[in-house]
Input
Amino acid sequence: MSRFFSERYSRLKAYTPGEQPKDTVYIKLNTNESPFPPSESVLDAVSREAGRLQLYSDPECRDLNEKAAGFYGVSKNQILMTNGSDEILNFAFMAFGDENHPFAFPKLTYGFYPVFAQLNRIPYKEIPLKEDFSIDVSDYENLGMNIVIANPNAPTGLLLSLDEIERIVKTNRENVVIIDEAYIDFGGESALPLVDKYDNLIVTRTFSKSYSMAGARLGFGIANESLIADMNTIKYSTNPYNVNRMTMAAGYAALCDSDYYKKNCETVMENREEAKKALRGLGFSLTDSKANFIFAKHEKIGGEELYLALRERGILVRHFSLPEIKDYNRITVGTKEQMDSLISAVEEIIK
Ligand code: PMP
Output
């Protein structure tokens, strides 16, 4: 830390992203990326747009917003496109949190939520999960705080039903409820149909997982128009050109190609269920993940030991050292071949 660093941030514990190693070519099952490349038309759109990089991007994202509005059945003023969904989440913390409007979220969830709260000096409450890692919905009813819940949750992959989400939104009408649907396309039911019914609900989405665009950085929020207007005030006060030209064009083309991505999600779900079965057969216990990752622990090998042994064999998974989950690994679901390699490596390790 330099002697110039603001006192305000001196105790901030920044988010640690998963490794993106350059030394070896790994089978990368550690950051929940899609194992499939973007569609051809996305590649064409990006290269076309690259020729116009001398011009700023459209701060209003008009074409993409209109396309997404049609696709998700909302009005274009109910959408805000951002630089990954991390950015819309930060905008929401900034717009709706302060000393008098704290945030609550599960104790075990996406590690960025406490960072956003600390960054913006918003008090927060971490609500413990049940023993089986599930969320107790009654903990969130009439809570009287802003709430953010990843559905499915990370790193457990456990899903709440639409009814359960509605109970939370309905009983916290004086607070904002953010449902982070980064992984909803892998088998969950979206809360988007509730957006017109509840003016306190924000649904966030990303193109990083189901749309094979983690490297492009595109996410968005859908909510009531006035919540979107508030978050736009934050956006225009930080970075009006937050989505670059190539990413905007890529997002538009991806939505035009939704059949391709839907099929990829189905493949990921099939591979997930097969891998779960194989891992159970090898002595793992796992959550019933409805995301593009598996959360598993072995009865005999510690989480870190397995992570290191897989790494030695060229397979990267994600291990978290938090005491509650140190026995587990989060394994991104890849192609059938990648999952077969994972299973073979695991068989060899536990032998
Ligand atoms: N929410 C959750 C639950 C996530 O796991 C991630 C991925 N790290 C994000 C949001 C952010 O993804 P992105 O910024 O790539 O859209």
